[in-house]
Amino acid sequence: MGFNPPSMSFVLAVTVLNFMPNSSWDRKLDVYKKWGWSEKEVIEAFRKNPSRTRVLTQSLEKRIVPRGLFVRDLLSKGLVKKELSVQALFEASEKSFIDKLVNRYKGDVHELSEVI
């Protein structure tokens, strides 16, 4: 992946990958590919800052997919006009995500809040 073994990012990457089965990495990589990322882009993001790519270690079913679908629907309804950062979307705590996105648009898209 292009890490420098004596660096802290190498230690973080090894730690993250050590706790993630290969099948989980592959499934997550497939999801990012469906969202338009190339394998090279996912690996590069992970290599640049493994601690900031916590999203790779999070549950697809419980966090990544529901939040992605929720924001996709907000975008399709024209409610969110600016790009959201990966951090705001996937790394935010449950409380922060609900406060900043779900509650903000609750009146506009009531049915969407049930997805989260």
TrEMBL record:
One of its GO terms (molecular function) is nucleic acid binding. Transmembrane segments: none annotated. InterPro entries: MTERF, MTERF_sf. Keywords: Transcription, Transcription regulation, Transcription termination, Transit peptide. GO terms for biological process: DNA-templated transcription termination. PANTHER family: CGI-12 PROTEIN-RELATED, TRANSCRIPTION TERMINATION FACTOR MTERF15, MITOCHONDRIAL-LIKE. Belongs to the mTERF family. This is Uncharacterized protein.
